[in-house]
């Protein structure tokens, strides 16, 4: 089977595909990763074959998230869907469709890759709609591969329900229509919902995170941490004398004097390029972060208690809520966070016990290798070649 991954042009979206790509490759399938030229080194460094797409300046706003309010922490630009009713869902769906539209320059290149290489299966980032269109042109089966909670399916469903119920006469200007017309018109293709939501969806997030999305078929897979191939420093082989705490940028200053005498503080800004998560997390007594999907899922898989100070951008508040439900950590607002929160997390045994139990629960989910035969069957069923 020939498999093509289409990755959004950001490293945080590229790394989560690596374990599944390895599993497919180890099972004898031909694997290629289509991604921006800036990420080719990260892909080949993982022992995988890269196909550069999106050359030039067309995707500059996406490769530099600091200039993209739709995906960064810009005050008006988060795409988070909180635990409530999300009253501003319409604005967030509009911004989501603008991210879709920004990848229009990928369409011709991805279609060319599909037509030339004839993959049997295309696994695409939820933002990368051109990959779904390219798969449809080439007759390949295709599915979304999530890297966080499926906000897109929920927002799409919410928009469709509003259109059908509140504006049956067509008064609701569906922002997806313009984007899809631009993608489909060059190939004379009709609109199909699978071009936005996939023929199925691979979901690596811990159970309990999923939003209701009728009509979407999900296949669970266990999250396997991967953050790049780097050497393990000598200090990591030594047992820490004090509880080791890994804290991401923006949280270390809030820990204060606790780091001086009670813990061994490891700053993610200093250590992340040198220490892969899979090696660092098992040695930690706690992780302090803003709730990003990669660290949340990786720490849960390692059985490490977490202290989350949510910074809403995508699914950070949902991660914090799931952590609290599992009893595997603490969630506090930025104004409430201080040394006492971390001290409680470290000193109360129940957090470690429940984090360990959660780790064991997650370990029973199918791993990437177990998902391979599922993908083979689904590909055979959906392929149109």
From TrEMBL:
Q: Which InterPro entries match?
A: EryCIII-like_C, EryCIII-like_N, Glycosyltransferase_28, UDP_glucos_trans
Q: Does the keyword Plastid apply?
A: no
Task: Identify the SUPFAM superfamilies for this entry.
Answer: UDP-Glycosyltransferase/glycogen phosphorylase
* Listed name of the protein: DUF1205 domain-containing protein
Molecular function (GO) terms for this protein are: hexosyltransferase activity; UDP-glycosyltransferase activity
Please name the source species.
Streptomyces cupreus
The biological process GO terms on file are: antibiotic biosynthetic process
The Erythromycin biosynthesis protein CIII-like C-terminal domain covers: 275-378
Keyword annotations for this protein, in alphabetical order, are:
Glycosyltransferase, Transferase
The record's CDD domains line, in alphabetical order, gives: GT1_Gtf-like
Q: Does the keyword Transferase apply?
A: yes
Q: What single Pfam family name could you report for this chain, choosing any that match?
A: EryCIII-like_C
């Amino acid at each position: 089977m020939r498999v093509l991954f289409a990755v959004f042009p950001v490293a945080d979206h590229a790394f989560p595909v690596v374990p599944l790509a390895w599993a497919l490759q180890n099972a004898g399938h031909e694997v290629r990763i289509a991604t921006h030229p800036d990420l080719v080194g990260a892909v080949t460094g993982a022992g995988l074959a890269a196909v550069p797409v999106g050359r030039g300046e067309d995707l500059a706003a996406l490769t530099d998230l600091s200039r993209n309010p739709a995906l960064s922490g810009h005050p008006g630009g988060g795409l988070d869907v909180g635990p409530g009713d999300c009253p501003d869902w319409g604005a967030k769906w509009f911004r989501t469709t603008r991210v879709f539209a920004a990848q229009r320059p990928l369409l011709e290149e991805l279609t060319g890759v599909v037509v030339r290489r004839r993959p049997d299966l295309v696994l695409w980032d939820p933002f990368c709609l051109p990959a779904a269109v390219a798969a449809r042109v080439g007759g390949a089966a295709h599915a979304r591969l999530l890297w966080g909670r499926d906000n897109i399916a929920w927002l799409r469903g919410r928009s469709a329900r509003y259109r059908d119920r509140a504006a049956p006469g067509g008064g609701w200007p569906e922002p997806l229509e313009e984007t899809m017309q631009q993608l489909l018109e060059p190939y004379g293709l009709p609109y199909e919902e699978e071009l936005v939501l996939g023929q199925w969806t691979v979901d690596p997030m811990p159970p309990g995170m999923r939003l209701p999305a009728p009509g979407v078929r999900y296949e669970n897979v266990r999250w396997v941490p991967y953050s790049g191939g780097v050497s393990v420093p000598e200090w990591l082989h030594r047992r820490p004398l004090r509880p080791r705490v890994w804290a991401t940028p923006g949280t270390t200053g809030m820990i204060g004097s606790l780091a001086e005498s009670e813990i061994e503080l490891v700053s993610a800004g200093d250590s992340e390029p040198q220490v892969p998560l899979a090696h660092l997390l098992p040695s930690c007594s706690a992780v302090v972060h803003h709730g990003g999907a990669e660290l949340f899922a990786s720490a849960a898989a390692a059985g490490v208690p977490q202290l989350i100070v949510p910074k809403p951008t995508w699914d950070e508040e949902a991660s914090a809520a799931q952590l609290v439900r599992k009893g595997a950590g603490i969630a506090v607002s930025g104004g409430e966070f201080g040394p006492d929160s971390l001290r409680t997390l470290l000193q109360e045994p129940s957090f470690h016990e429940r984090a360990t139990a959660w780790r064991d629960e997650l370990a029973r989910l199918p791993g990437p290798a177990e998902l391979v035969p599922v993908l083979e069957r689904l590909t055979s069923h959906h392929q149109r070649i």
